[in-house]
Specification:
By secondary structure, the chain is mainly beta. It is 13% helix and 41% strand. Strand 5 and strand 6 form a beta hairpin.
């Protein structure tokens, strides 16, 4: 648990917020708070806050539902007290969705999480307006929608609704079980695990149509169209759930693959009965044979030949690019062909294209095994055994071929090009565990090395440009995007709500440090920790980008905390 001293004030963002006995939605609910309520956070653990409540009791609150900015927190409190706001909320206005599929968000802005989407023609009720956004009642709860995507004219709205009803609907997905949401507010995710992105939020009692199960997770569709994965213990009443399957390549949806074409790259390759060198050899293939990959399991692919035979082949002895066009990498003075690798950072974004500006369609965590299926510049196109496919920066992938080159080994032997000893190892090439500090430090060192290149650069308010200059949050934003491809918000108070909290005693190079009550109250300044109690930041228009001490007479009393963004 990360200690915080002194207690940090925060304000409740949602209309109602559950207080729990422990840091997780599976913990017992022990109370409820309303929007604008002020609490004092005593410590952080896994994105949850151990907090002192208004009545003097203590409990756990989800960090993402709290506002830590003093100014915005006081606005929330005043808003909650204001009778005008309450009467406005009660006087709801009907509206109809104009867009094809409009996001409903947790707050009035694009930076807030999406709860899910609402289809064109759906009727909602507007209860509040703020900066071009509308708070709406959707029938399943409240959320924020961009005002320009709503139709307020009753006649036009009814036409939208009528057109939507007359549009042929897609048939309901085939399901083998029906259940109900057991938790108060539960996330649907892109894949079967908490590491996958949230695609929607469902509430207690909603009906779920279960189409697949994988381990302790159900794939389910909610009435209204959203679908995703939900933990089994958060579903009640489900029976006749299908047997776990490996039908993880189902789709035409963005970021998923169905099959892949590949070519055998070694002289003779064993095709086995299971994805391991422990599997029996069923038959063999020769160099240049063209196959179809129908399924992945870590670094192994299930291949199907033109004659219909199928079996498992190690990923380092086939390529998803035609002969002569295989992806390559440099290791020292060598150029090596790269086919498989591991994610080499605690969390790496999966993008829709080979650019840090491309849409993020998912992510993978440290040591996740990937198949490299394409290359463009400094980016690899990768596929994973959960069915996802997309682009990752090549410097964030540690490939098998490069590891072997560093050790002076060969990437091919005995028909499989070596053996795998299990998750995260290949031919004895151990991958560090997710808690290994070496990997974290190398990321931090990259961040600081890039940041130090700009010592002496100009301070320009509102800028995040090496050519023009930076303000404090713009500097942090630019460095993270340049080094990691991570796009942080452009204000210090919203950056403070990202990443993992880090105590002062656990600071490491690359951590983002925050200060409060500088030129305004609340979180108002940010920089990058470089070690030895020093940080680099865009200070002000007089001093520009420079290095200062956390113990200085100015910054020490204003230090507000730190976050690790990688």
């Amino acid at each position: 648990m990360v200690s915080a001293a002194p207690p940090k004030p925060a304000w409740v963002i949602p209309e109602t917020l559950n207080v729990r006995s422990g840091p997780g939605t599976d913990r017992k609910k022990i109370g409820t708070l309303t929007r604008g309520a002020k609490v004092h956070v005593l410590s952080f653990a896994n994105n949850w806050c151990w907090s002192s409540l208004p009545d003097g009791s203590k409990g756990w609150i989800a960090e993402w539902h709290l506002q830590f900015s003093h100014d915005k927190g006081r606005e929330l409190a005043e808003e909650a007290k204001s009778p005008e706001k309450k009467s406005t909320a009660n006087a709801s206005t009907p509206a109809w969705v104009k867009g094809t599929a409009v996001n409903v968000r947790s707050g009035p802005g694009l930076g807030y999480d999406s709860y899910g989407t609402i289809q064109q023609g759906t009727k909602v009720y507007v209860t509040e307006r703020k900066s071009g956004w509308c708070k709406v009642s959707t029938g399943n709860g409240y959320g924020w929608m961009l005002g320009e995507l709503l139709e307020y004219d009753i006649e036009s709205g009814r036409k939208l609704a009528s057109a939507a009803q007359s549009t042929p609907k897609q048939s309901e997905p085939q399901y083998t079980a029906k259940g109900f949401v057991a938790g108060t507010s539960v996330n649907l995710r892109k894949g079967p695990g908490t590491s996958y992105d949230k695609v929607a939020t469902v509430v207690q009692g909603q009906t779920l149509y279960i189409t697949e199960t994988k381990g302790d997770w159900y794939k389910a569709t909610v009435h209204g169209g959203n679908s995703g994965w939900i933990a089994r213990w958060l579903v009640k009443g489900a029976e006749q759930v299908p047997t776990p399957t490996n039908t993880s390549k189902p789709t035409s949806a963005s970021g998923r693959f169905e099959t892949l074409t590949a070519w055998i790259t070694e002289e003779v390759v064993n095709v086995r009965t299971k994805p391991s060198t422990d599997g029996d050899i069923d038959f063999q293939l020769e160099r240049g044979a063209k196959v179809t990959i129908t399924e992945l399991d870590g670094h192994w692919g299930k291949v199907k030949t033109s004659s219909g035979k199928s079996g498992w082949v190690a990923g380092w002895v086939f390529s998803c690019m035609p002969p002569g066009e295989e992806p390559t990498a440099r290791e020292g003075d060598q150029t090596v062909v790269v086919n498989v690798g591991w994610v080499a950072r605690p969390k790496v974004n999966l993008r829709a294209g080979p650019s840090p500006d491309a849409d993020r369609i998912g992510y993978a965590t440290l040591s996740t095994r990937v198949l490299i299926v394409g290359q463009k510049g400094d980016w690899y196109k990768i596929a994973m055994d959960n069915g996802e496919i997309g682009w990752m920066a090549s410097n964030l992938i540690d490939t098998r071929a490069q590891r072997l080159a560093r050790r002076g080994g060969s990437d091919a032997s005995s028909g499989e090009g070596g053996s795998t000893a299990g998750a995260g190892t290949a031919m004895g090439l151990d991958f560090p565990s997710p808690t290994t500090r070496q990997s974290d430090c190398s990321v931090g060192d990259q961040i600081i090395a890039r940041a130090k290149q700009f010592v002496g650069a100009s301070y320009v308010r509102g800028s995040a440009s090496p050519s023009r200059g930076f303000d404090c949050s713009g500097f942090v934003h630019y460095i993270h995007k340049a080094v990691l491809g991570v796009s942080l918000p452009r204000s210090s108070d919203t950056q403070f709500r990202r990443g993992q909290p880090v105590s002062r005693s656990d600071l490491a190079p690359g951590d983002v440090v925050f200060f409060e009550n500088t030129y305004k109250s609340g979180i108002s300044h940010v920089g990058l920790y470089i070690g030895n109690n020093e940080f680099i930041h865009a200070a002000n228009s007089r001093r520009g980008v420079r290095i200062d001490s956390l113990d200085s007479s100015y910054y020490a009393p204003r230090y507000a905390g730190a976050r690790r963004m990688y």
